[in-house]
Amino acid sequence: MAPSTPRDSDTSPDLLVDIVETLEAHGLPSDSYQLHDAVDVEALERLLVSSAGDVEVRFTVEGIQLVVTQDGVDVLLDEPAGSPDH
Question: CA-CA to 81 of 20 to 30 Å: which in 10, 11, 20, 26?
Fold first, then answer.
């Protein structure tokens, strides 16, 4: 598969594109990882669509911690690896 990342994000972009764009925005080029090694995007999308309540799924791709909800994809920046805050 060729890493292709369309930039059309007007209304509800494909979850895969949203994840890849989020990773790229945090400095991780799409050719430097295998997303399917971290998460099954199709299963994640089905989970989010079928859920009646709030769902939050967290996973890490090459050291970047992502949180996926029905509202979108975010990066966890609170807890740097190896340095406990409290």
Answer: 20
